[in-house]
């Protein structure tokens, strides 16, 4: 049949076409696998697996008493995927109001209506990554995860949560310039955070992750990859309590005197450990005081009178002066060439002892002594300053320490008046920390310690690096000089400019400073001062040295004692009151007294014995028994067995007992107790020894 | 197995092929719906497996009933179905459910189920082609009596499908041209039809540009441009190629695909790439072989089938199915631009699977008749 044959070959052609088609497909698969294969497989690897960096936890910064000064807490960023496929239009429209209510309730920063329109707008604009809120806490997140819509998770509810670690400072502004910060935004890192950044940072981990269902990343292999190494912890020498007092006292003074800025350093005399370092300066923007700059280490200035300690050291050490020598203070007015040297505080004295001269802080007196002694060899004086390392940085761990400036005779600014002016703390720059190191050395019997603020570096709770106190100079002067220095520093408080710090509880030694501030262009501003106090306490057995510098008080009061003194007092008072070991011990009282022996209530044997034992009441346990009572005896308490041992079914005798024991005995024998009065049981309504009727009432009358 | 063949009639080989594809489909769908399950079913990966199995079970049921019907009945209803499907296509075009700028779906009012009207039209058209080609075989070379009645239905149907689903229309049209070729329509007329088709298509595009269908034109343009300009293909094609490249000869093994997480809708049009990723070049070869064998079995029916309608029906439906399969695989391997055509009996899908099942049921109905016929012949010869 022609037709059928015709159709057969046509089908055959069509079939062969299909087979060829199939072979082409097969060939194409082969080509993709083997000709282009490597390229596609490489692409697959870059897509499906990826090394993901795992952030290391930044180390904490602790105070010396292990309180957290800086730590990292996780915060969460909340975003809304408004076009998520699982979120149905109708459900969203119905529920968005509730979600908005919940958000408004949780954050209390915007109205519910506000949130509602934000969510609706986000959905209208098909925003897939709409930012709702930054930096919410873990607790807030837990609540948020239960809100309508959001409780359905990322795919049905569009909730996207991103975790970030936020550096937090539990004590807020406390020492925050010293603790410092490291920010991502390019601001210069400061403080310990900057200095110890490498320790705190840790190293990021790396882990091979694969993309899996639901857009999540899953580790390819459990043990593969590099675990993050958490940052090390820094244990500082800062004492939170002292820091807190220092900061508050400083703030109080700055406010009271409307000063520009100020700083306080509290140092441990024996070790040089810094217990507190407070810096406050006025923020021009809102006229409040903030930790803006670390003045204590970063601002070298003319110290004024507080520098006289170094001058006195030179004079004593070279044997030019003794405490008892006298000197003419010329009523606080002296000419050096054409320059007038004046005493800051009027004293009206002319001829005073060296000791007094220092105590009343006479510029004229001290500059005269130095001028007389060193005018022919100024470098001999300067060498003392260099030996005391007053021209060098102390090398504190906080970045930004400013180098002091002590000129020498070859300096182009050296002039004929340089020597007298330097002797009273002008024509030179020094940081509070550097100068305090000298005062601390005097307090520490001539051993100059290097100030330090980091005590220990820890890793996972184990110390990895310990910083031990470093001696900068084992003996700054002779013992005789040291004694003289201590005496003149004591005298300042006993009879001199810092008499306001004198108190009967603990002794203070130190020196006030009231320095005029130089203008930027040179010369001195009229009546703009820097008030300071450097000292230590207790003067007889120094434990803490403190420096206080207040810049530009502006209410007319500018004397170091009046402006900086109260800060010292507040800090010292506080430390003294909280350190019992600083108090002189009260002599043990050996006198004997005639006292009436107390009347011991009848009671449980072990209780009574414990009581009389611990109160050291002489007693004799004449007779043993579960319950004991006292026999009247004038010399000691004699305890004999009480007959009131509980006998089952019989009312016990509770006379002479306290309420607690009486109620215990009566109720445990099945009686109901009514109480009248207080003291010792004098009377009981049911006599001892009568048979108990369960639930019967007994009234006990107590009396003292 | 024997119990299964006791209740089913028709070519056992075709039944085996259907079962084989069903099993492969189950495995591939289960593996590739993982991320879907995580997105919508809270990680309940069995959800889609069970759903897919349910759809398949109903499809097999449809197939079973379709194969019990005498195939001659299909000749009678083919015209009716075609007459129903053409207006339905128009309704869909203007009132259907819109997904991705295209209206392809129509919801059946009472049962509230959506289906692609083109699936129905396709089935109806091929049945009708079988009928016309068989009836007019004697005067097939005649222009008016032979060619025109054969040419009109495909041109109309495809013209109605084209605005919303150009690739389906084109494939259907090509299938019809192949059937015409097999049905001895002269090559001259076939080329005229082809030219006519291109003309109609141009006309449609021109109209579409002035109507809301404009967006579709841009989609087509975009896809073709993508295919022509970018040798690596679109994101979807790239991911498919990565899947294929990772498969190797024997694949990563069942359920070990990683590309299912990157390939959008891996359970639908691109399931063939997941099959190659998990079962390798070998798996791909098996799939191709299965379709070719299926075609071969249907051609064998043509040879054996005494009635011309049955023969054309079996060949027409089987070619339509295999062409669709080949085009799907060609898209996955980047031989052709992305079309949106599924892999018959393997891709996850609802109603289109049922239309495929119906088509196979009809083929089986023919084969049932052939088998009965053979039995009669052998008994006649024996007597």
Please provide a written account of the structure.
- The complex is a heterodimer of chains A (704) and B (383).
- Chain A is built from 22 helices and 31 strands.
- Chain A folds into four domains: 2-35; 52-236, Penicillin-binding protein 2a (Domain 2); 242-579, Beta-lactamase, CATH 3.40.710.10; 603-703, Trypsin Inhibitor V, Chain A (2-Layer Sandwich), CATH 3.30.10.20.
- In chain A, strand 23 and strand 24 (544-551) form a beta hairpin.
- Chain A has 704 residues and is an alpha+beta fold.
- In chain A, the strands form nine sheets. In chain A, strands 2, 3, 4, 5, 8, 19 and 20 form a seven-stranded mixed β-sheet that branches. A six-stranded antiparallel β-sheet of chain A has the order 11-10-9-24-23-22, with helices on both faces.
- With 383 residues, chain B is mainly alpha-helical.
- Chain B contains 14 helices and three strands.
- Chain B has a three-stranded antiparallel β-sheet.
- Chain A binds chain B through residues 3, 6-8, 10-11, 14-15, 18-19, 21-22, 24-26, 28-30, 32-33, 36-37, 39-41, 43-44, 47-48, 85-86, 155-156, 210-214, and chain B through 34-35, 37-40, 43, 137, 178, 181-184, 238, 241-242, 244-248, 258-259, 261-262, 276, 281, 284-285, 288-289, 291-292, 295-296, 299, 302-303, 315, 319, 322-323, 326, 329-330, 333-335.
